[in-house]
């Protein structure tokens, strides 16, 4: 699921188009909560109207009633586009660097040593947005594999609800100005500089693509993967969920993590009072309790 930074400043001003009636807004609020886990307050009425007017134009619809009927008829078919429309993808390479420092200095060396005899290492980027997070994880993982000469079966699963975000993640193509968090050394090693029509862009190295599997997934629906995972990154996602949704999600994460596995949350998120399956071991870093 993408980071849903729903703020009034995001609403485009002066946008003309159909008006969102109160009953239609209530339907959309209920639909978004049921299918995405995002609780929209009454103050988001104008924001939702402005965001979805663009979606209506893309679909050739003249009124919100027709859009609501589309959702009733084919909820899954439009769900990803709806989530994209009302959400803002806020992400960057190596955001919250202390998480990557912990991986490099402690976790990856330990895991690779423990799993060197026919082991497997799995990391899940849940809410991967446009791909910066899983590719940053792939960089530190690839470097750890090279450093140790390890042949451990290591993979990263990257999932999101937004089709637009996943499309960019699969392309692995990023404007140079979006790569401030990547060191010069890593830019040279893990990216191919674009030329011609791709001037001003960089593409992730094929080695990173080998490590990352990108798939659509709604965190509130069934999960096809069985795990177990050594670490799950779910950063800047659950802040937009209500308490019961967070509790259910954390317990599901616990069920897919190895004993002693790690869950990484965003800088504004906390598990305090929400789960007894984890213990806090660092700044927004939680470890699954061993029982």
UniProtKB/TrEMBL annotation:
GO biological process, one term: methylation
Keyword terms: Methyltransferase, S-adenosyl-L-methionine, Transferase
Binding site for S-adenosyl-L-methionine: 89, 91, 95, 133, 160, 218-219, 235-236
Enzyme class label: transferase
Domain CheR-type methyltransferase: 20-291
Methyltransferase is among the record's keywords: yes
Entry-linked PROSITE patterns: CHER (PS50123)
Catalytic activity of the protein: L-glutamyl-[protein] + S-adenosyl-L-methionine = [protein]-L-glutamate 5-O-methyl ester + S-adenosyl-L-homocysteine
Listed Gene3D superfamilies: Chemotaxis receptor methyltransferase CheR, N-terminal domain (1.10.155.10), Vaccinia Virus protein VP39 (3.40.50.150)
Role this protein plays: Methylation of the membrane-bound methyl-accepting chemotaxis proteins (MCP) to form gamma-glutamyl methyl ester residues in MCP.
Name recorded for this polypeptide: Chemotaxis protein methyltransferase
Source organism: Dyella monticola
